[in-house]
Design goal:
Chain lengths: 328, 328
């Protein structure tokens, strides 16, 4: 599983983030050299504490908007994991330029830096959000041409398109991963984070965005990394697009139930109402993962296990009574 | 056909271009007020000679990169045709930032200017190129999620996604048109233009990009405008995506045959070879136009008639022996 082909010196954007830092640890454990790149706007230096003890690791603080620094930092690498992004899906309409700049233009800058350094292989963290509100469930990679419903999804779709065009125009090879939501250690935002912190603040009442019936899919971060590394090892096309998720889904209400049971709480639930938690929220996300499973991958944790694993991480790092660090 | 609903004062980006200037004339003839916007980089002032005689027309020279001028110019309008683009499909890889800036970021600026002016309705000239190299012919709007093969296609896909996200996030209404190649009066670039000028220069020999078997679809500019105006009148969704093309296709060789016959020439043909004329060229473009035809539209000209109409225009404006004005 950890054999990652010809990758030797790997550049990771968003290296101090949730998925990025877990990936960095895995790549280092597999004996790879890693250059981590992060602007530390939402990434956290402490997530790289273990990585920093490895001789094979170096970290460069920088922003994808700085094309020249990016080009320089990438020198000598032979593979890029482009994970840095504005992943703040809910608030796209509050600052519409953010997704464009941090997801679309940033991806262009990464591709140009690769081209300047003659690096041809890139893995990209896209999202199931680019399916908008699909008509087909589970939703396969080849579902009908979707209509975008969020600036986040639109900005990631644009990133995919740019990467694909570089494959055609500049002989790049790309691995595009359309994730469901990811759970696990170093999780820093999302519904488990929100519910956990809300319940720490008030264990008796909780506000739920939407009607609680939104049906979502989740995957554990280490399972996600297993899948990415396997695809990179096995997929041979120029453009390799893979959904990543489990064969399950759960409602927001169910997930909240697991969280409350784990914490031993029975809060009264208040719903903000409506099918969607926010503008652009998809009421049902469930991806067809036949393609990645056909390579031999399967997730080790169920959604419920991943939620509980996440809660254990949150409890260890944000114990009841401690001053909370606000989510970025 | 010319009833265009509640549009009264219409902002047209790319107003001095091939399609834009023909559209402006049609809108003025239908009694609308029009504000034309163009940076005149490829648009031509002479295309607006007739429009400039209309009281209801005003022209602002400006660039979509200038967000503040764009916002100001759009004031008081209630509908935007966003046609301005880098339509230079062939040379995307020579200057990769051009498509991103002039098609994707420019579209974002148009949408933000609309939002600042509380304009909610937009028509967008997208392209059949966003289907990449599809597996389904004729290709419907709902074909399987495509892979991009050109920076041009990727930049237009990104534009579509942004517009759709504005429909979801800001209650915009959009009409997205995926064109095949357009022919007719004021045509300024494309294969008929290239072949005509090559044959003016040397009537005995002609170079053909690719193997000449590339199979393409074309539509006459007035038919295209008919279709756009009809869709805007009839389609009622928030996001309305329509292919525009004829139910025919022809090969590059066939089209060259019509051109040679028309000009009375029998040049020897030299092929650069390969299935594609250039990187990102699609060897077969044929769109399913069932959706737009179901509204009652049908093209008045066949592809061959449109090619001949274009040749008559070129002959009138670039007669043999006259100094050629280079295509932008």
């Amino acid at each position: 599983m950890e054999e990652t082909g010809s990758m030797q010196r790997i550049f990771v954007t968003g290296a101090a983030g949730f998925i990025g830092s877990n990936l960095v640890d895995r790549l280092l454990a597999a004996g790879k050299s890693v250059v981590g790149w992060d602007n530390l706007s939402t990434g956290r230096e402490e997530f790289l504490e273990s990585a920093r003890t490895a001789r094979q690791f170096s970290f460069v603080r920088g922003d994808n908007a700085d094309a020249s620094a990016l080009r320089q930092a990438m020198r000598g690498c032979d593979f890029v994991f482009h994970l840095a992004a504005n992943a703040d899906v809910r608030f796209g309409t509050r600052h519409p330029s953010k997704d464009l700049e941090q997801n679309t233009v940033a991806t262009f800058n990464v591709l140009e830096a690769m081209r300047a350094n003659n690096i041809k292989r890139v893995a990209f963290s896209s999202t199931g959000s680019i399916y908008g509100e699909p008509q087909v469930f589970p939703t396969p990679e080849t579902c009908p041409f979707p209509i975008q419903t969020s600036l986040y999804g639109a900005s990631k779709l644009a990133g995919e398109g740019l990467i694909e065009a570089y494959c055609a125009g500049f002989a790049f090879q790309a691995y595009i991963f359309r994730f469901v939501s990811i759970l696990g250690e170093r999780y820093t935002h999302g519904h488990v984070f929100d519910f956990y912190h809300k319940l720490l603040g008030n264990p008796h009442q909780i506000e739920v965005l939407g009607n609680g019936k939104q049906c979502k899919s989740y995957v554990y971060v280490q399972d996600c990394i297993d899948a990415m590394l396997l695809v990179i090892e096995r997929a041979e096309g120029a453009v390799n697009v893979y959904n990543l998720g489990t064969q399950e889904h759960c409602t927001v209400d169910e997930s909240l139930g697991w969280i409350c049971t784990y914490l031993g709480l029975k809060p009264q639930r208040f719903y903000t109402g409506g099918e969607r938690g926010w503008v652009g929220d998809s009421p049902f996300i469930f991806l067809d993962t036949t393609k990645v499973r056909s390579l031999g991958w399967k997730p080790k944790l169920t959604i419920q296990e991943a939620v509980l694993r996440t809660l254990r991480y949150l409890q260890a790092h944000f114990p009841a009574g401690a001053k909370l660090r606000a989510s970025a």
